[in-house]
């Protein structure tokens, strides 16, 4: 390249001596080589510089978060890293999850599986069929909880308000995964206790009482504020994507919608969910997880099953968000799919974390 550059310089000199026309002809002749040389120099500079792989603080970006909370990680200030598109901190492993999903679908263990993963430390994420729409089912209980806790920020007394359960209708009867603890007919419960039961036991009767006793606009406001599709009677089943749903967990972790105390309360409930299959089944004991599952049977004979699980896995110093939505013919098989995805993601995070120690 240096030889080419020297030749170009000499030719330009000769062109100037022979007049403008000669110069013009020589410049046109050697311009492609000159551009090629400059492009090579630029590429070499980029690869060798810290623009893509820098160890400097400016390249990494930074976040300032408030400590002192168990489940939230309030974001106070951040600087977006220049290399955020492909994280240097976390080697890509999307292809491994995709291979597992393809194997499950090809072996008829699922009709469809969508995944959303996000590293909650610095933001890199990936999705697999993240725009596929599903029925959120019991996942809807999380935005209902958020709506009530939002109201409680300005009116704390609302959580102490009592609501009587008349027991005329059992909304848990048709569920495949039933709560281990049920509401007692004729007994009154505080809204705070109903929220706890709705999340921890996924109690549909508690859910029904809470829905009937909230201004629907307060509930819809949560969806509107996050830009998430609002439940619609014209499309009651498949209307929510795994990526859209993940937003509810992100705002709780960042304490960016509810205040810190209410975000902490919500995540504390979610860490006590009694459903121990799905995501939890793929994790070793002792790893905390704040999650919510949902199930739904659809089709003329309820032959199509949907099972979802979404949550924050609190891997030490590296929390991550993992959401899986799936569709198939058998709940047990769908549960096994989610468990295997959770296991594979955890093993990848754990392996990379140990290699950096």
Describe the protein's architecture and organization:
This protein is an alpha+beta fold and 357 residues long. The protein has 2 domains: 2-48, no CATH class; 65-355, DD-peptidase/beta-lactamase superfamily (Beta-lactamase, 3-Layer(aba) Sandwich), CATH 3.40.710.10. The chain contains 13 helices and 11 strands. It has helices at 2-17, 20-48, 50-53, 57-60, 94-106, 141-154, 191-200, 204-212, 216-226, 242-254, 260-270, 278-281, 331-355, and strands at 62-65, 75-79, 112-119, 125-128, 133-134, 162-164, 188-190, 240-241, 289-298, 304-313, 320-328. The strands form 4 sheets. A 5-stranded antiparallel beta sheet has the order 4-3-11-10-9, sandwiched between helices. The protein has a two-stranded antiparallel ribbon with strand order 1-2. The chain is globular and about 55 Å long. The two termini are 43 Å apart. The relative contact order is 0.13. Residues 1-18, 33-66 and 76-88 have low confidence and may be disordered.
Ends: how far apart?
A: 43 Å
Q: Under the CATH scheme, which architecture of the largest domain would be assigned? A: 3-Layer(aba) Sandwich
| CATH fold call of the largest domain | Beta-lactamase
Strand order of the largest sheet: 4-3-11-10-9
Query: Average pLDDT across residues?
Result: 81
Report the uncertain regions: 1-18, 33-66, 76-88
Number of strands: 11
Question: Class by helix and strand content?
Answer: alpha+beta
The figure for the number of domains is 2
Computed CA radius of gyration, to the nearest angstrom: 28 Å
Which features characterize this protein?
Beta-lactamase; 5-stranded antiparallel β-sheet; 357 residues
């Amino acid at each position: 390249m240096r030889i080419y550059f020297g030749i170009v310089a000499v030719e330009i000199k000769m062109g100037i001596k022979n007049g403008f026309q000669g110069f013009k002809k020589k410049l046109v002749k050697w311009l492609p080589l000159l551009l090629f040389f400059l492009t090579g120099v630029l590429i070499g500079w980029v690869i060798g510089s810290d623009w893509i792989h820098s160890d400097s603080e400016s390249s990494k970006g930074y976040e300032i978060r408030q400590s002192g909370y168990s489940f939230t990680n309030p974001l106070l200030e951040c600087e977006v890293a220049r290399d955020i598109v492909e994280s240097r901190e976390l080697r890509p492993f999307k292809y491994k999850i995709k291979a597992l999903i393809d194997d499950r679908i090809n072996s008829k263990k699922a009709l469809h599986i969508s995944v959303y993963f996000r590293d909650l430390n610095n933001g890199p994420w990936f999705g697999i069929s993240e725009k596929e729409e599903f029925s959120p089912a019991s996942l809807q209980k999380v935005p209902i909880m958020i709506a009530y806790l939002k109201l409680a920020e300005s009116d704390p007394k609302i959580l102490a308000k009592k609501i009587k359960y008349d027991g005329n209708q059992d909304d848990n009867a048709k569920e495949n995964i039933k709560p281990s603890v049920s509401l007692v007919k004729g007994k009154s419960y505080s809204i705070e206790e109903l929220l706890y039961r709705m999340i921890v036991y996924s109690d549909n009767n508690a859910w029904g009482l809470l829905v009937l006793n909230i201004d629907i606009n307060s509930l819809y406001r949560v969806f509107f504020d996050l830009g998430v599709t609002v439940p619609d009677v014209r499309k009651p089943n498949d209307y929510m994507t795994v990526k859209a749903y993940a937003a509810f967990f992100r705002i709780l972790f960042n304490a960016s919608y509810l205040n810190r105390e209410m975000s902490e309360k919500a995540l504390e409930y979610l860490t006590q969910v009694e459903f121990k299959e799905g995501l939890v089944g793929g994790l070793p004991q002792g790893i905390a997880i704040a999650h919510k599952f949902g199930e739904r049977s659809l089709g003329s004979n309820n032959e199509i099953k949907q099972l979802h699980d979404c949550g924050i896995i609190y891997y030490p110093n590296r929390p991550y968000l993992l959401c899986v939505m799936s569709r198939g013919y058998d709940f047990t098989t769908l549960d096994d799919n989610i468990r295997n995805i959770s296991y594979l993601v955890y093993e990848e995070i754990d392996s990379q974390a140990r290699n950096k120690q």
